[in-house]
Amino acid sequence: MSGKPNSLSVRNSIFIFVIRRIQIQMGTVNILLVDDEALLREGLRSLLKTETFVRNIYEAGNAEEFKKAVETLHIDIILLDIRLGGSSGLELLSAINKKNINVKVIAVTGLEGVELVINLLKAGVQGVVFKLDGYGEILKSIRAIMDANSYFSDKIVRIIQNNASRWDNVPPVTLSNLESEMLKCIAHGLTTKAIAGEMKMTEPTAETYRIRLIKKLGVTNTAALLAYAYRNGIL
What we know:
Blueprint: H1 7-26, E1 29-34, H2 38-48, E2 54-60, H3 63-72, E3 77-81, E4 83-84, E5 87-88, H4 89-99, E6 104-109, H5 114-122, E7 127-130, H6 135-148, H7 154-162, H8 177-187, H9 192-199, H10 203-217, H11 222-231
Parallel strand pairs: 1-2, 1-3, 3-6, 6-7
Antiparallel strand pairs: 4-5
Helix pairs in contact: 1-10, 8-9, 8-10, 8-11, 9-10
């Protein structure tokens, strides 16, 4: 559904974008580590606490601790192991979506199956990181998501490209030249700052166009936006 963008929702999204940039600059990003292996949580904690943009690092080792943390703490980013004891990461994602919490989720998995990745993307995660890719990839995804709302490595982009038809078949929409350029910039993984520089506009303006483009195409997230672009030959 394309429809006219709601001006209030656009303003709210711009406000959130500006707050995220300030958080990075001031070192006030709160991260929740969700993994049933204490050793892995401790390892990530020791690495993340050296990053200047991180303020608080919280931990959850099971579904109950996860739900309590989400309900009682202010969290900006969740690093979610999708195999959490007896709980499914997809179930936990559903709980977040139902509460309509403004938090970014990076799914961390030791599995690289196409079906799993597609299901995670459709569930609304902002990034998928494979454990074998190491801490550098996790850090890269956190920084990108705070600056550009999502992060997809080349592996994830290829999965979206090869399975674009599996997303909702949104009817083609006529795009202006500016909108087409914006779509290509997003698809190539440029941050909002990079898009602003490429298109010679301010960062809040670039973020406004990004939000309006998603609403115009009737897609729900960046993964669906990429699928639309590949399905319609824009990329």
